[in-house]
């Protein structure tokens, strides 16, 4: 893998014999577990980059609205800090984890809350204490890479490893942490690991053992396959304006929620272990080639790459401001949050507001700017999107109007839909109450959002769908 090659080439390879090895500062032998050997109270931050690339082949057979090959790519980043806690009552090591999601390009915090949890270390089978697994809008980022990044404790060599030592392990797919979502498939995963070399990745870095492993497997599903929803036939996707919904409810049902009938997997993992400390870094990549039922369904390839490196920047986010009824003037700036649009990074700055609302009240939020295309997101107490303005192109106003579903705290993200470098002033206004309705501040009293017209056709298969 490219990351591993760069580390090995850029680092100073240490001798594994003679006086250098005898010196405790230059250990040559490592046990794979425990991965973290730092004392209680020790803390270390990591910048974790996640990249994934998905290709769908033959989608035109499933829907005439798709091309023969559809490709999607995304890059995410997260800053996570791990602190060693006292072992649990069972003696298992524990780490407190604090994490915030970042824009991968600017490394500014995304408009999402800081996540906290307790990670249990091997040989514990349960990774997260209290089953408190991070589940952000961006998906599950691998904050548990220190739990089982490489060979499991049960498969690890029993004796300390020296450079050039290697091992082999095999597991049924349902028993392997990399492929837990495919439990029940028949097949086997083969893994080969190696202690490649002892090196110093940077001038002042501690000696690190580069542990490297490759794996591959072939699997197939022997049980019955769930059928797509009845509406998911090619003819249902032909109406103008319904393709996006059809892709979400039908195509995504097959490609993301249904298990494949056959799967080929291969990948590499590496970790740089430090004798009495946190690991220096880690990386991994996996490629999954999946075949689905029915026979004419598309074929999908998913490539996932993860890199984790030590990172010591301050752990903080911008402030959340109070939003009260009325109009206020504010500005987007380079020290703001980084925004989200429909759950994905917008590559634009954002400000985040909070307000208290009552169940059944109506909230009408507007955002006006002549400097950029404004965009609004109304979020619940967990920062999950409730409603978005869906404003793009040369629009000077964004609006969100909804009935509040509960009594409690709400958050509002004010951002832009036209890029990071669109800075400047805007007006934001909130109206809140049981009788609030769109009034003279609406951009056009007769304007109706395209998202409000889904299902206007009485014959539409989407007439029960609501954007709210």
Characterize the biggest β-sheet.
11 strands, antiparallel
3D shape: globular
Instruction: Say how many strands there are.
Output: 21
Q: Please report the distance between the alpha carbons of the first and last residues.
A: 44 Å
Rg estimate, integer Å: 26 Å
Annotation field: number of helices: 4
Topology as H/E string? Answer: HEHEHEEEEEEHEEEEEEEEEEEEE
Mean pLDDT: 79
Short description:
The protein has 468 residues and is mainly beta.
Explain what you see.
Helices cover 7% and strands 41% of the residues. Strands 1, 2, 3, 4, 5, 6, 7, 8, 9, 10 and 11 form an eleven-stranded antiparallel sheet that branches. It has helices at residues 2-10, 19-22, 59-62, 243-257, and strands at residues 12-13, 43-57, 69-85, 94-102, 115-120, 166-172, 186-200, 208-220, 262-274, 281-291, 299-310, 320-322, 326-332, 337-341, 344-357, 362-368, 374-379, 385-388, 397-403, 408-416, 424-433. By secondary structure, the protein is mostly beta strands. The protein has four helices and 21 strands. The longest helix is centred in the middle third of the chain and has 15 residues, at 243-257. It has two domains: 2-221 and 259-310; 320-437, Jelly Rolls, CATH 2.60.120.380.
What keywords describe this structure?
mainly beta, 21 strands, 6-stranded mixed sheet, disordered C terminus, single chain, 11-stranded antiparallel sheet, Jelly Rolls, 4 helices, globular, 468 residues
Helix-strand blueprint:
Layout: H1 2-10, E1 12-13, H2 19-22, E2 43-57, H3 59-62, E3 69-85, E4 94-102, E5 115-120, E6 166-172, E7 186-200, E8 208-220, H4 243-257, E9 262-274, E10 281-291, E11 299-310, E12 320-322, E13 326-332, E14 337-341, E15 344-357, E16 362-368, E17 374-379, E18 385-388, E19 397-403, E20 408-416, E21 424-433
Parallel strand pairs: 12-15
Antiparallel strand pairs: 1-7, 2-3, 2-11, 3-4, 4-5, 6-7, 7-8, 8-9, 9-10, 10-11, 13-21, 14-15, 15-20, 16-19, 16-21, 17-18, 17-20
């Amino acid at each position: 893998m490219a990351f591993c090659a760069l580390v090995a080439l850029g680092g100073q390879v240490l001798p594994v014999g003679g006086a250098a090895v005898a010196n405790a500062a230059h250990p040559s032998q490592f046990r794979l577990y425990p991965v973290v050997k730092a004392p209680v109270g020790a803390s270390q931050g990591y910048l974790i980059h996640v990249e994934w690339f998905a290709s769908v082949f033959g989608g035109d057979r499933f829907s005439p609205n798709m091309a023969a090959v559809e490709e999607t790519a995304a890059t995410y980043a997260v800053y996570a800090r791990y602190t060693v806690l006292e072992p649990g009552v069972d003696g298992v090591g524990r780490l407190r984890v604090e994490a915030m999601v970042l824009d991968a390009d600017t490394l500014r915090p995304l408009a999402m809350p800081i996540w906290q949890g307790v990670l249990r270390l091997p040989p514990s089978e349960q990774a997260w204490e209290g089953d408190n697994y991070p589940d952000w809008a961006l998906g599950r980022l691998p904050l548990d890479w220190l739990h089982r990044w490489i060979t499991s404790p049960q498969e690890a060599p029993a004796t300390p490893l020296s450079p050039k030592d290697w091992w082999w392990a095999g597991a049924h797919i349902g028993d392997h942490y990399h492929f837990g979502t495919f439990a029940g498939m028949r097949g086997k995963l083969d893994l080969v690991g190696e202690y490649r070399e002892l090196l110093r990745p940077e001038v002042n870095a501690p000696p690190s053992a580069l542990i490297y492993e490759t794996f591959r497997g072939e699997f197939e599903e022997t049980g019955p396959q769930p059928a797509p929803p009845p509406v998911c036939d090619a003819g249902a996707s032909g109406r103008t304006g319904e393709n996006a919904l059809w892709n979400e409810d039908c195509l995504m049902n097959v490609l993301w929620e249904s298990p494949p009938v056959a799967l080929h997997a291969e990948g590499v993992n590496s970790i740089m272990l430090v004798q009495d400390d946190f690991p220096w870094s880690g990386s991994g990549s996996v490629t999954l080639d999946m075949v689905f039922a029915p026979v004419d369904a598309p074929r999908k390839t998913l490539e996932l790459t993860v890199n984790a490196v030590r990172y010591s920047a301050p752990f903080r986010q911008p402030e959340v401001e109070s939003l009260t009824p009325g109009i206020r003037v504010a500005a987007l700036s380079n020290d703001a949050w980084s925004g989200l649009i429909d759950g994905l990074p917008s590559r634009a700055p954002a400000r985040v507001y909070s307000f208290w609302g009552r169940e059944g009240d109506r909230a009408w939020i507007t955002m006006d700017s002549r400097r950029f295309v404004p965009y609004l997101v109304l979020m619940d107490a967990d920062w999950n999107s409730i409603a978005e303005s869906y404003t793009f192109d040369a629009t000077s106003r964004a609006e969100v109007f909804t009935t509040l579903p509960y009594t409690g705290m709400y958050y509002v993200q004010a951002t832009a839909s036209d890029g990071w470098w669109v800075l400047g002033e805007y007006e934001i206004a909130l109206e809140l109450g049981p009788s609030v309705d769109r009034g003279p501040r609406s951009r056009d009293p007769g304007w109706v959002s395209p998202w409000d017209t889904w299902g206007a056709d009485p014959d539409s298969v989407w007439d029960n769908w609501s954007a709210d």
